[in-house]
Batch of 4 targets.
Target 1
Amino acid sequence: MFIFGILIIVVMFIFRSAYKVKPEDMRIEDKLKVRTFVTLGASVLGGIMIIGSLLRIVPAGSVGVQVLFGKVLTKSTLSEGLNIVNPFITLEIMTVRTQAYTMSIATEEGQRYGDDAITSLTKDGLEIAMDLTVWFHLDSPEAAIVFQKIGKDYVAKIVRPAARTAIRNTTVKYNAVEIYSEKREEVQTEINKQLEQDLDGRGIVLEKVLLRNIKLPAKVKNAIEAKLEAEQDAQKMEFVLLKEIKEADRKKIEAGGIAAAQRIIAQSLIGERGRAYLSWKYLENLKNLYQSPNNTIVIAPYDKSFIPLLQIK
């Protein structure tokens, strides 16, 4: 654009020098208007193109890497916004926002079509498949170095291989059951630590590694599920046993209370006091029977003191 602007200005001067207006020319006013119009138009157009070639806009969340005749200006990275640059600069835009690279068993979920899960061997020699997402971003001051030494495809060249290597180097330290259950968080932290070391010094900042899914061999998964089910059954039986023990204790306490009550009642029925109470209770029952609406004949044996003929000791 800068060159075209210069060419337009040069052509304008050539035109002015060639298109001369003399006092004796016919229609001199029309020629002056043409000369003025061409001069003004060429000047404005050429000026716009020259100024436009000096101004570059870097999008938000990005940096601009300047390349001058094939040479990367590693110390002149442009920040986002409007910048004034050398008109002969080629500007390469690189994002510094957080990026997510996913390797998944799901066909259309990861960056690559198809099953892109990471297959790795564990300490006990089993093969497991893992879904992984890596959060990272490009280090702004190092963007020019990354472009110079790696290129804009640094994700495929660096991030992906480093992530897969870190996972395989980590899973080989653990058994499959440990990775699947109690040490999953520890495995994720170990992968994050190793990948951070691998990316150090390459202009790529690791934010976090997300271990999203682990697929075990069918026989191992079935064994783990059977073990978990057995543990749940054992816990259930412990609860039932504890409940039965508490119920037995309750019944024992209840039986002791009933026995104590019976002893107290038995003691209260001994002697004259007990005989008087039974006589009163006997008469009360006869009264209730007498007041009953049913036509009932009740024959109750008793002695002269209205004591029911019961064996009382």
Target 2
Amino acid sequence: MSDISSLVQTQPTGRKKPLQRGARLTPRQVNLALELLVLGAIVTGLVSWSVGDRLSGVLTFAHGVCGITLALLIPAKMRGSVKTGFRRRRLSRWISTLFGVLVLATLALGMLHATGLWFGVGQWSALWTHELFGFATIPFLIWHVVTRPVRPTARDDDRRALLRFGGATAVAATLHVTQRFVAGSVDLAGGDRRSTGSHEIASGDPENMPSVIWLNDSSPRDTDAESWSLTIGGGVVPIDALRSVSRPINAKLDCTGGWWSEQAWDVVPLSSFFDAPIGRSVYVESITGYGRHFPLGELANLYLCVGYGGKPLRRGHGAPVRLVVPGRRGPEWIKWVTSVTVSDRPAWLQPPLPLT
């Protein structure tokens, strides 16, 4: 593989030389490319959480390509503007250094998760820490763009430079595919990830399936089925009544924390409670106040779950009743459901990701 960093030509700090035909990427072009790559990695990572499995796989692939391309251009960045910046000895160089360290740590954690070389410690998984560091880079990226703006000019629109950047992206895409093949060949966990990037955990073994929650949501203390208040369309539905008519379906819960688990969930279709509902969405709410709107047309794909493998749900998994939504990511699988209503509010009129 060719050295991608050789695509960069550093310019002296004195008089600027005119851009010559066939010139390599300049430090300015590298900076612009890196800003776009960091932004692309952040956007693709966040949006992949809020879409279904199929689109999530496409975005996850794009996210990985952004990250690998960024890593390939780091040596060029070090020999270019980083070297120049430290020569100037500005105090702000330490903020830039922290930004760079965060980006490097985020890249390293993402690669460790992708290959399966390290999963983290307890709930602090490699991917969750990768995501946390990724969020931390956002204010630094904004600061960097504001204080060191790299506005595209006509000189940046160089066909040869664009072809070289495209070549770096193509190399990154090849490496992204290759690392998964190699991981599978040497029996690393990264070889059999889903397209979403998640690793399998405890499929068919619900007792060992992780218990996680979204952001600052919290598990209720009292989850007794007999006293649980569940209203569907304004009517009260006992949990025992749900259990008596539940049936098993196999579905994969794909958590944004980087794992997935397939269970035989004991469910009741929500569509069985509504006869020709009038509205624009279905709103499902937890006892914690956490809730999401779903398009009314997806009612047939929403299930109330009361157990798995013939056993009741555990509290950490949403007992006594949770939502199961095959094909959607973990934040949509609402736990501890207390209310299901038909709403006139469209499902798109809510944040793409829950804020609480």
Target 3
Amino acid sequence: MFGLLACQSVPPASRNANEIVVAPVQTPAPTSASVQTPASTSAPVQTPASTSAPVQTPAQTSAPTKDDATVEKLLDAMEEQGRTMKDFTASATMEKFEALTDEREVRRGRVVVLGPTGKDREIGIVFDELIDSTGRGSTDARRFVFRSGWMSEFDPTKKQVIRRQLAPEGESFDPLRVGEGPFPVPLGQPKKDVVREFIVSMGTLPDAAFFRSLAKVPPEAGSVGAAGVTASATESPLVILRLVPRVGTKMARDTAAMTIILDRTSLIPRGVEVEAVNGDKTRVLLRDGRLNVGLDDAARAILSPPSTDGWKIDTRPLNP
């Protein structure tokens, strides 16, 4: 969900085997055992026997699979989750990997979301620890608050705030909306918007040490998740979706693919990986996710801008 501040991509490669394909069913032209000749012809001319066999249609060659049905259920359940969401909090660790230099940067903090899908949704993200490419840790506090079409970035060290307007005043705008918001990860998004922007299929846990902690004991056999997906004793407690931006969409300019990692039972997000066209990757790991349990004082404080008396304020409205 919080593919946060860096979401980039490449055009999708060949069609994924799990892609949901809705192809028009082509009705084979009617054939018969014989073709009638004009009346002057004394006997019907028989057509070759091979022409009587029906031609296989594209719909027959790409019949829906079990994975397709699971994707449909997951997207439906995620849409319902977004519609009924009241609040969400989690500890967040974000890793940025640069392919050119092979360097990594890690930030740790917390994320807060208030409200269901829609223009009134608020997001607060605070990072208070930075680990550079050498593994050296330091304090580097940053806070990002989104509300009412504006995103504010607070840097207490420099005593500076940058306010960016992302939508006209009063216009409906969801900061998590795919293809529109600054955090384009489809958490609780309308299904039609997701499938319009992405080719969606079942995925696998990214092969990265960053996500190693997500390999947990499998759930109890027979448990049923929020999407009606029954788990076996050998299955992971996670469900994973892979989203490839469709050609021509905004995200397709920079983003190759996104991997969304969810808890199988609750569909609470556990992680995100965004793969960029140039090979860069942004990964987010979410721990202790809590959905619809109310916000404590610490969470509400993240959503509340700090005092900026004496700070430099840089306001950047939308271009007229």
Target 4
Amino acid sequence: MAMGESFGSEAHRLLPHRSNSETAACSPFPWTVAAIGQGEKLAQAGHIVAPELLSATLAGKSTGKLSPGELAIATLPIALFYYDNLTQQRHYLVEAVAAGGGDLITADAVIVFGYAIAQAIKEQLTPASFTTQILTYLHVSLPESVVRSAELISTLEILKRLIANGSELQGVIAAFQLDAETKPMSIEIAIALYCFLQTPDNISLALNRAVQLGIKLDIVGALIGALVGTHSSTVGIPAEWQCALQTQFATPEFSQRIDHLSAQLVSAWSGVYNSFILQEKELPIATVPWVVRS
């Protein structure tokens, strides 16, 4: 009973909430602004139209270069849109990361997250063996990254060992805190993967682990949310949290914009012609892509 109460109070503490100054709802993170801009262009054109898009959407919104974890969220629409074609997904992620000021090492980390998103959507993600699956993917599809991104490979090997050994949280905290000092390029994505893979069907426990790890919680939480969302859809997010997101954390207009953009992206991916002109309250009918229907 005490343990249940502890988890319950922790989940309540993790509920999204608006800050006293109300700035949370009015000033999204730079990577959120970039993701929305990327998604809107994708929905409008049905494909990537300009590699400069990411840097354009970030203009005036960021004071420095985004980290791999931040870029993974900023480019999330690309990872989602091309989940069924990993070659195209890699290509466009590299272009978008370059436009955002990142190099190929940064792109490798973003590609790992895009691959995780794709496997979650296709229901081909097995938590116990997923780090092995990622490493195999990198060795086969991106052999140059094994040498170029030795830091990323090392972090994934550590992640694989922690999961295989069932390491206690204190040992995980020590390993990741050390990694945060020596391998800052890939730590956010590695922590998000660890927290998600431990309890892929329970976002509150995944976020609870992230809180206890205490490293870059804002972006790690966003990465975990993206993974849980693609793995379990909205069913995996507690109803209380969904209500809080709709009424407390974001303005109604912002929530409606995100919902409408999601519908537009699905319809564009499915082959609906010029879905961007749909009215806000219209929901398109989507079918198998590239198949003409009445």
